[in-house]
Fold this protein.
Amino acid sequence: MQPRVTRVLQALIVVLLGLLVASQILVIPQVARITALRNPDVAQLEVPGIIGATVFLALVEVTLVCIWFLLSLVQAERIFRVEAFRYVDIILAALVAAGVLILAAYIVIVASRAVSLSLTLLAMLGVVVSAALALLVVVLRGLLRKALELEQDLSEVV
């Protein structure tokens, strides 16, 4: 991979992390406050909603940081090392945790009788996307393992 591409990706990750932190601090609490004021029947979900959304974005941030480290390994031409699996495993755990968090949030919304068709569809979409991405990471992890084995075999031959 070209070094320029990895540097651009890392710069975009920095921008994304900044936007996510700003959203956690500024946007989420404000949206929750406005929603609670406009819909007093779901006002009790304001604090759990803030916590859930903040944790969800933190999981996205963890994933982006792991991608940053994987890109660093690519730049150093050390991606086919055992240390890469640690970051891949953390990404996988974050994706599974995000799916579980979405499902838990949906259950809380259903229990509070604030469910709607759009929320049901969004929850289903979130769970399916997190599951699909987790399975994709499992496949990519397998490819990384195979590439590591092939590289080790080649180094023994040479």
